[in-house]
Amino acid sequence: MKTVLKNFINGILTIVPIILVIYVIYKTFLFLDGILGNSLRPYLKDDYIPGFGLLTTVILITVLGWMSTKYITGKIIKLIDYLLEKIPVVKTIYSVIKDTVQSFLGDKKSFSKVALVVIPGTEMRSIGFITSEELEDFYSPLKDHVAVYIPQTFQVAGFTFLIPKEQVEIIDVKAEDAMKFVLSGGMTSTSKQKSEEK
């Protein structure tokens, strides 16, 4: 029975992550394919091929990106951008989405610096990510502070703390590795170390 139970647990440890990854990829594919796919499907009917909506979306985004570099179309896109930043309520939603996208894909990516911060009143430390080093424009007394995002274990939600620069230690760890370490509750690095020792 011990052998059977051990094999069963090994099966769960092996199969469940694979099934979950396939499921997430499948759901993500359906979502991205449906952005334009739901509009194209009624016209193409039986000729519609799964993935055509996703391909069309990628092509459309690429074309719009190319158009934004041209003089006339670039001016039109900048005008739309300007108008969206002036409409009440809409400007708040638009600026949050725009800043978030640029933080991941722009020239100055956020989450690229991993920080180690001390929890006040203790000797405990927490891993976070520098999201902004220029807080003076937001609130001038915070010019000597940085914004540090600290995610919670097993979820992407977290907290943003404004911490004095001298209290933040930048560590030489890849952002992806740090995120996996935090989200897994520290189990990722442990499993890697065990596999390297073997």
Automatic annotation (TrEMBL):
The keyword Ion transport does not apply. It comes from the Bacteria. The keyword Transmembrane helix applies. Pfam families: DUF502 (PF04367). The chain crosses the membrane at residues 7-26, 48-68. Keywords: Membrane, Transmembrane, Transmembrane helix. This is Putative membrane protein.
